[in-house]
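**Discrete fold encoding**
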Amino acid sequence: MQLAPFYTVRFRYPKAWDAELSGPGGTEQQNFLFAEGTCTGRLSGRFRGANHPRRRADHSFAMDFQGFIETDDGATVIFDYQGYGRAYPIGRRQVVGAAWHLSDHDRYRWLNDSLCVIAGEVRSPAKPPEEIVQGERELVFDVSELVWEAPQE
């Protein structure tokens, strides 16, 4: 198999809500975040979505992110991202995941049975975490298509 670079998405969460739950195993948090941004690359356009990750007791986020991309050429591509926002390194947390896309547009119909992978970062401004306000963190995801190749004999 190979990875073929597909697009880069840069976005922020201008609005967010959360609920924190404490128990004998630690504290978890459920978040709901609206995302707005842009995509560049083989898929380019306006990016919008909603992520509702669970922050585990170890401070990693279990990403559960759905939305759509309005492409520059007039198509709509729906996406579903699943993965992890790791708790490290502080200030530029790592993101890893998988991405699925759907579209009824002829140019992007090939996405309907493809699989992509995500490598990204959560980039925080250089100031104490308690001083960061919602929408200041930028998230950058590189999305690559997983290209099928026959396994070795």
